Automatic annotation (TrEMBL):
InterPro entries: Kinase-like_dom_sf, Prot_kinase_dom, SRPK
Name of the protein in its database record: non-specific serine/threonine protein kinase
Coiled-coil intervals: none
Known EC number: 2.7.11.1
Catalytic activity field: L-seryl-[protein] + ATP = O-phospho-L-seryl-[protein] + ADP + H(+); L-threonyl-[protein] + ATP = O-phospho-L-threonyl-[protein] + ADP + H(+)
GO molecular function: ATP binding; protein serine kinase activity; protein serine/threonine kinase activity
Residue ranges occupied by any Protein kinase domain in the UniProt entry: 53-342
One of the protein's GO biological processes: regulation of RNA splicing
GO cellular component, one term: nucleus
Amino acid sequence: MNNVRRRRLSSRECSTVAHIIHTETPIEEETLPHYKAEHYYPVRIGNVYHARYKVAGKLGYRAYSTTWLCRDLQANNYTVLKVSTSLPDYPTAADRELRVYKHLAKIDSSHPGRSLIRELYDSFDLHGPGGTHRCLVLQLMNVTLLKMMRMNPRLFDLPLLRMTIKRLLLALDFLHTEAEVIHTDLMSNNLMLSLEDSSMLADFTTAETENPSPQKLINQSYIIYYSQNFRRPTGGRNYGLPVLCDLGEARIGKTQASGPFVQPHIYRAPEVIFEMTWGSAIDIWNLAGLIWDLFEGQHLFGDIFDAKGGHDPFRHLALMVALIGPPPTEFVRCSETTEAVL
């Protein structure tokens, strides 16, 4: 861990002690189905990573990463550090995401959709007790669309929905037509709102200094922090505009052969379910389902799981046929599986 530097606490910081949680109840990333402590890098608030990024607080976690608000000590601004898990012999989403970002960086384009995709600023690796962790330094964002919807029920009126769809379509048009990238993972949790009120950053860091996040000590080197939220905009300011994020499941190329399933279950396109060759059209199918969810507040195809909670492709397809009718004959002929089922 030669690229990590511990901070020296000021007298003010030393006077404030974090609340230590003593519980066997799982919290944060511990609640994930396949959680193992050794797969997560032991990020510490206050530490400096890559001799540049000082951690100010924890923003969240997902199945294969944790995210942290950082102060870029060289650029003198704030960024987000996304630290991947270290799963041995498994191609991580962070590796895929970095490949896609490097691919996008090679494209010389003035397409308006390009600016509607979250930016990558830097990347590096950390070496922890459980292996190597890919780290991505990303454009700072506020909350996800999903979280904002939970805070503001029935938020999506028609004008707001139109604006969101327009921005998404522009971002997808750039990915599909100029970058030849398929996102494959459109959902409200992968749409984030830009942060327009910079005073929220000062308030976040002040709150973390004066009232540190509760911590759960797993072992001598690993602490789990509770994620913290930015406060809501004040002074007449609003949330920012939606930006497409998380390219960890994206694929480069116009078409992809059948293989490991992509897309959230509820938005999975027929050609993916039937294990057919698929292309950028699956993003449009996915987008249509997402639009329905945003406006109606419920899934278009919700009852698609079996008694054990697993995805039931036959039930899913039955709901599709019941709603929009049987697929065209030429589509059915594209796959032996399709012909057997239909």
